[in-house]
Amino acid sequence: MPGRRRSGGFTLIELIVACAVVGVLSAIAFPSYTEYVLSSHRSTAKAILSEQAQYMERYYTSKGNYTGAKELVLQSPKTGQARYVIKLDPLAADSFSVTATPQGKQEADKCGTLTLDSTGSTKASTSATNCW
């Protein structure tokens, strides 16, 4: 009709295309974001393991053995919801091992349990690379 003006707005096809684009971008971005968050929490746990190992070396220097040493912190992060549980295992008077075991959503992390021992050796419970 010659006298009718087209009202502003989007057509149904334009809305469907926009939703499809958002869906594709979300499908790509969300897994990357999730991996980034897990990696960030893993970095915090590694820092706490290193801090505990440094404490153990200072303890050994002053006491002459690792016997009787305690964990500095019990979880990672130090406050808030635990992503890792920190455990110290004095294996003998002259050696120790400190582990960070993932908890909750962090269990989905590719590296699993992280371990640092008195020789400075690091390992992950899985065969994933780039954990340390």
UniProtKB/TrEMBL annotation:
Transmembrane helix keyword on record: yes
Regions that span the bilayer: 12-33
SUPFAM superfamilies: Pili subunits
Swiss-Prot/TrEMBL keywords: Membrane, Transmembrane, Transmembrane helix
Domain of life where this protein originates: Bacteria
Cross-referenced InterPro entries: N_methyl_site (IPR012902), PilE-like (IPR031982), Pilin-like (IPR045584)
NCBIfam families the record matches: IV_pilin_GFxxxE
Annotated protein name in UniProt: Prepilin-type N-terminal cleavage/methylation domain-containing protein
Organism lineage: Bacteria, Pseudomonadati, Pseudomonadota, Betaproteobacteria, Burkholderiales
